[in-house]
Amino acid sequence: MTDFMTGHHLAQVNVGRIVAPLDSPELADFMAQLPEINALAEASPGFVWRMVDDAGEDATGFRPDGADDMLLINCSVWESVEALRDFTYHSDHLRVLSRRREWFHRVAEAYQALWWIPAGHLPSVAEAMERVAMIREQGPGPLAFTFRSPFPAPSGAARPDDRLQGAGEPGQ
Amino acid sequence: MTAEDSAFETLGVLADPVRRRLYRHVAAAPDEVGRDAAAEAAGVSRSLAAFHLDKLVEAGLLAVSFRRLSGRTGPGAGRPAKLYRRAEGEHAVSVPPRSYDTAGRLLAEVVENAGLDRELQAAARAAGAADPDAAAGDLVEVLRTRGYEPFWDGETLRLRNCPFHALAGEFSALVCGMNLALLEGLAAGPWSAAMDARPGWCCVALSKGKSD
Fold first, then answer.
1. pTM for the complete prediction?
2. Distance CA A37, CA A35 (A)
3. Which residue ranges make up each domain of chain B?
4. A139 lies in which domain range?
5. Cβ separation A89–B121 shorter than 8 A
6. Is the preceding peptide bond at B96 cis, omega within 30 degrees of 0?
7. What are A12-33's pLDDT values in tens digits?
8. Which CATH number is A83's domain given?
């Protein structure tokens, strides 16, 4: 359900280093399943938006770290943490997710972030990477958090500069 | 009272066999259960069922809500029925004390950080396939014994309980992936597993005769 009281949506980003180029045999299954999984996301309750590159199909064209050719980004917006959790872990997406180590390297640092945005705002690649950096530097806080340490949507009306207020809490 | 004392008290309420039958029936039912249905399932009178059901509520094992079963509202619709469902929360006690949950959480964290998803899934699938009762064909009973609380919903076998609930909440990708592999290992042959999530349930459902 949209958080109508506060007018916020949940943004999500995760990054991953692919084990081989997108057109390699190693990534073939991943690339083949991507359209289906993106369609499943779009049809899921609580889906709002997903980031796509200039090609318009998915986000595999983005390289959020200019120095890293193999780093992919995935970013989307949902009505609630529960809606995102249901899609991520409790739908057929789990079948793809459970094969993540075939296609993506394990990363020691945080590779995902969740944060609240004013409904209607669409996050950019830079904004999303900033949130991942916040978790890496400060641990989960109200400005960038995880499924395991969620934070409630800000109270009061959403303001465009919400993302600049408050400091992430050092943590964990 | 220590946490252990309170766990003993709560679980002690289930020592009575009638209460245990009522609890199991309500806990495994896909929907909330009324007194009449619970009484019939446990083979006792309605008033005896009501007495024991309320003891289970007092102990915090069942929760209650009131609803008109007929769907009617307004004057003439009758009194709302008292409906029972399993309460939230987990109760476990072991003598002597054991902390397999602590070990499970630590192991999960290490497996997650080491990126060993595939190794875990392979082990889970093999463990499922090695279950002698599942291989003998009695999958429903095997799932019951393993705590999944299976029930038939038409042609689909749904699983009312997630045996890995707390770990699955904390290490979802890892533990749900392990569980899916375990079920695929158990459900060999004519069965196929499909994702079918509902809050608090196992997110997998099984059906026969369809191949993936």
1. 0.81
2. 6
3. 3-86, 100-208
4. 8-164
5. no
6. yes
7. 999 999 999 999 999 999 999 9
8. 3.30.70.100
